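Notebook entry, structure prediction.
Reason for the run: the old model in the group folder had no record of what sequence produced it. Starting over properly, with the input documented here first.
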Amino acid sequence: MKIALIVSILGLLTLASLSNFLSPEYLNPEEIKSNNMAKIKGTVSSIQKTKNSLVFEVIEARETKILIPKSTNLNISKGDEVEIIGKYGENLVIADKVRIINYK
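New structure, fully documented this time:
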């Protein structure tokens, strides 16, 4: 029982440390190629909510459109500083994860 607990804790620590190294690096929109994973940090400049999605624009080096495909309880406002991890598509990033860094 103790061995299983120790091995489990070591495994979780290993996964946590690996996740820091495997995370996408921050990219400027000019550096992002289609179908690549991107990590973008910027300020929300506009928001459009629909029934099935949330689209907002983030200003970093230039304005980038972000799409969240399904409705979420994300309480985001214009002026919030956000970090987005997602896949870059045609002129927008399809977000997998959105984290609000600073609320306006």
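Summary: Residues 2-22 form the longest helix (21 residues).
The old model has been moved to the deprecated folder.
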